[in-house]
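Table 4 source record.
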Amino acid sequence: ALDGLAVGVVNRVQTKMTGMQIGVLNYAEDAAGMQIGLINGAETMVGIQIGLVNVIRAAWVPCLPIINWEF
């Protein structure tokens, strides 16, 4: 689990992420907060993703460029 900020090239959280991930590749299984990077991914998310490729599998539109969100 991650509560807070993760900054790195690759950030991966296999459980709950609450906070922010900043990196080239960001992934969280269950995310709440924000992801900023080239590629962002989450199975479920309450929050926003900003990057080249943004994936939230449980979202109504699961993959969007530039910005993706689910609330």
